[in-house]
Amino acid sequence: MTIRILTRLRCITAAVISLAMLSACSTESPQSGCMQLQVQDAWIAEAPPAAEVMAGYIRLTNPANADIRIETATSVSFESIEFHSTRMENGQMKMQRLAALEIPAHGSLQLESGGQHMMLFNPSKRYVDGDSIDIIFGCSGQSTAPVEFRVKRMSADEPSAHPHNHH
Amino acid sequence: MRNPILILATIISAGALILGFWSWQQWAQTTASVRNPTVKTATVLPAPRPLPAVQLVNQNGEEIQIALKSEHWSLWFLGFTHCPDVCPNTLALLKSVKQMLSAGTPAKHIELVFVSVDPERDTPEVLKSYVSYFDPDMIGLTGNREAIDTLTSSLYLPYALDTPDEKGQYNVEHSGALVLIGPDAAAHAYFTPPHIARDLAQDLRLIMQAQ
Predict the structure, then answer these.
(1) Quick check: A93 and B175 CB within 8 A?
(2) Which of A75, B34, B74, B135 is most enclosed, with most CB atoms within 10 A?
(3) Dihedral sign from CA coordinates of B81, B83, B89, B93
């Protein structure tokens, strides 16, 4: 008796899951575009004068049912933008260029110092604390609306964790 | 038949003995904590390691013999100015550590030294603009490849120049460690990342006070 109920329950559960999967498949492509990306805490670290490269950080959230793969980032303020990852290997700080940023379905990706970050080459001018810079992300033939990054001077206390905030 | 004077003398002697032992224990504990401060993040070398006798050039283009004794302790970091992420973060943190030490009691002064292992791009002029952004008193050093290699191998801080990309840009792999150099021109302690400003300041104070 108990076994029969359990079996029936299993069948119902499986049917519900199948339905959910079916609806997910029918409404979403395997890889989602950037339109659904949600962004938070977009900032660029102010760099010393004459610096040829700056670093950008952001929190990217993907509310969609499919993974998002950001392949490009462009801005009129920089000659080029690349994605990099810093990692510690045998006490050495190593940097690796990434082909794309991957944000899993219903997941998020934090770009941060000492981890994945954006490298911004050859700024068109010297950008300082308080300036705003627009960056557009591109993926799978789509692009985001311009994302506003705020230039901030590193906080003196815990630079990697908290940029200096203006209130 | 017990002698009351003898009993009293015994009690006084025992008391003196206990007091003496307690005082000695206190003294020993204080001495031990000065000799072996409880550091949080530092790796203190059992014997300081002298800097090699190499000549580097500072941000003003002056030749500097690094193995000379000085008045101050200094905190060294090796990197390159085209490093957008880790180096500026670390140098901003060093500035903060310096401020914490000078604001503490007793105030401690420490010099900050940034050594570029990328002399091809980091000329003294570039270094000057770079280090003074973080702290006007920060010392920037670089040198010829041989001098840099002698220094980095002596401090056990290897680095590697990556192959330039199509735009001629290249990264330099380097250690994220900080080295504490004493007034005796020798390495006394290492700090490995992740660096926390408060912990660094606390450890530096302990190590510098113990010497």
Answers:
(1) yes
(2) A75
(3) negative
ipTM over 0.90: no
For residues B118 and A26, what is the distance between their CA atoms, to the nearest angstrom? 54
Q: In this predicted structure, what is the pLDDT of residue A134? A: 98
Q: Do A92 and B175 touch (CB under 8 A)?
A: yes
CB B142 within 8 A of CB B124: yes
Output the CA angle B15-B19-B20, nearest 5 degrees: 115
B124-153 pLDDT, tens per residue? 999 999 999 999 999 999 999 999 999 999
> Tokens 């003074």 correspond to what residue?
B132
Instruction: Look up the pTM and report it.
Output: 0.77
Closest residue in B to A54 (Cα–Cα):
B84
Closest-CA residue in chain A for B190? Answer: A91
- The span from the CA of B16 to the CA of A17, in Å, is 82
User: Residue B76 gets which letter from DSSP?
Assistant: E
Structural contact between residues B175 and B83, judged by C-beta atoms closer than 8 angstroms: no
H-assigned helices in chain B: 4-35, 86-103, 124-134, 145-154, 197-210
| Backbone dihedral angles phi then psi of residue A12, each to the nearest 5 degrees | -65, -45
Q: Is B97:A163 a contact under the CB 8 Å cutoff?
A: no
Q: Which residues of B touch A84 (CB under 8 A)?
A: 85
Give residue A42's Cα distance to chain centre. 10
Residue contact A91–B196, C-beta within 8 A: no
pLDDT of residue A53: 93
DSSP reduced 3-state for B31: helix
DSSP state string for chain A: -HHHHHHHHHHHHHHHHHHHHHHHHHH--SEE-GGG-EEEEEEEE---TT-SEEEEEEEEEE-SSSEEEE-EEE-TTEEEEEEEEEEEETTEEEEEEES-EEE-TTEEEE--TTSEEEEEEEESS---TT-EEEEEEEETTEEPPPEEEEEEPBPSS-TTT-B----
Cα Rg of chain B (Å, integer): 24
Going by C-beta distance under 8 Å and a sequence separation of 6 or more, which residues neighbour residue B105? none
